[in-house]
Amino acid sequence: MPSEPLDHRLFDCVQVNLAELADRLHGDGTHLALGRVLRFWPRPGADGLPTVEPRVDAHVTESATLLGMRVTRRERVDGADGLAPGPGCYVVADAYHLPWVPYFHEQHLEHSFLVEPAEDGVTVVDGYHNDTQWGAARPGRWTLGHAEFAEALPEGALTFDLVADGSATERTPLVELADAGSFVATYADHPDRVRALRGLTLQTWLLTRSRRLHAAAMELDTDAVRAHLAEWDALAKQVYLASRRVSAGREEPRALFPRLAECLAADHTAFGGIVEITATSTVDTAEVPVQVRESVTSVIGTVLGTEPPAGAGALGEIPGFSSFRMMEIVERIESDLGVEFAAEDLVPEKLTHVDGLCRAVLAAGGTR
Fold first, then answer.
1. Measured CA distances, 176 to 37, 73, 142, 152 (Å)
2. Residues 16/17/19/24 CA torsion (nearest 10 deg)
């Protein structure tokens, strides 16, 4: 079987370092055993909102089993002194205190990493790959002195020792999809719209990654599945945009909730058989005034450091573009051009395309 390099973008922050460890123990490609399971099984979460995020202990235990590993020690430690750095030392701690991730002193969340011994300290291995509003997280190795590592764990950590235990599970699919009606309705009707959309941003991020992992593990590479995954990507971006807008006191696009329901419903067919899915562009292809296009491309150039080349369409082709930069572009266009985009125009199909941005400006009454 050909080697299958680990694509860190497929995993959440708990899975990714279990995947790293499994490939070390069993060889390249083992990590894809995690994609065998595709699940939509919400549980009660914070603020009365359901969540698809598993509890850490259950997540680690199930993932280790899928990857052919066994937990030999699980302990809540008070600080760095309670850890035993080594080949299977896996740790979950608060990312707010971890200096190698962009959440450092920005956001509290559970985050995993591996710890190895090093001269006069430890080496932290973290395969997490994500773009955040505070910067990019990328896989790497960081050597920290004993004092520096102690500062990274001021509230202690949850630590696991893992060893190889047989081989990873066969990649036979296990798909568990609950009814999505109450999940969607709860987020749509929650009275605190800021909390609801902030929470839904995490939910759609997790759902999108898990579906990409399942498709990779099961080698589902049909046009239908690719289109379905692209729709999940677009939805996750739209929810993030909506969250940012609502946090700023602006109107939210209610169309994202039927879109969420459609994505969850389409999981049943996209991952259970061949279904024809057509990705329809919402970008108006008619000409836009030259002055508007020049203003829009100028803003894009300011945010990304380079203007789109003449005739360019999709902004995803420009290095450095991401959903966070997309939000910066929208806010800068509104500020510089004195417009406010309509809530229904806050969809990635428009905001990731030069013509789509121009059309949104015109719809908002912009003329330059």
1. 8, 29, 38, 37
2. 150
For residues 124 and 142, is the Cβ–Cβ distance under 8 A?
yes
Whole-number Cα distances in Å, 290 to 139, 171, 297: 42, 53, 10
8 Å CB contact between 39 and 178:
no
Residue 361: half-sphere exposure toward Cβ, Cα within 13 Å: 30
Give the separation between CA 111 and CA 5, rounded to whole angstroms. 22
30: confidence class by pLDDT, cuts 50, 70, 90:
very high
Q: Which of 350, 352, 368 is nearest to 360 (CA)?
A: 350
* d(C-alpha 201, C-alpha 158), whole Å: 26
> What tokens does 320 get?
């450095």
Q: What is the pLDDT of residues 43-93, one digit of tens each?
A: 998 888 999 999 999 999 999 999 999 999 999 999 999 999 999 999 999
Q: Which of 76, 82, 95 is closest to 150 using CA atoms?
A: 82
Q: SS3 of 89, please? A: strand
Fold of 290-363: 1.10.1200
Span 321-334, pLDDT tens digits: 776 677 778 888 88
Cβ atoms of residues 154 and 98 within 8 Å: no
Q: 196-210 b/e with 16+ CB inside 10 Å = b? A: bbbbbbbbbbbbbbb
**What gap in Å lies between CA 70 and CA 89, rounded to an integer?**
12
- C-alpha 105/C-alpha 229 separation (Å) is 33
User: Which residues lie closer than 8 Å to 203 by C-beta, 6 or more apart?
Assistant: 51, 52, 53, 187
* Amino acid making up residue 245: R
pTM: 0.79
Cβ-based neighbour number of residue 117 at 10 Å: 12
Q: Give the angle subtended at the CA of 67 by the CAs of 99 and 104, to the nearest 5°.
A: 10
> Using CA atoms, how far apart are residues 53 and 33, in angstroms rounded to an integer?
19
133 is written with which tokens?
Answer: 């509003």
Encoded amino acid at 52, one letter: V
What are the sequence ranges of the domains in the chain?
Answer: 8-164, 179-270, 290-363
Q: Do the beta carbons of residue 234 and residue 158 sit within 8 Å?
A: no
| Eight-state DSSP code of residue 353 | B
Length of the chain, please? 368
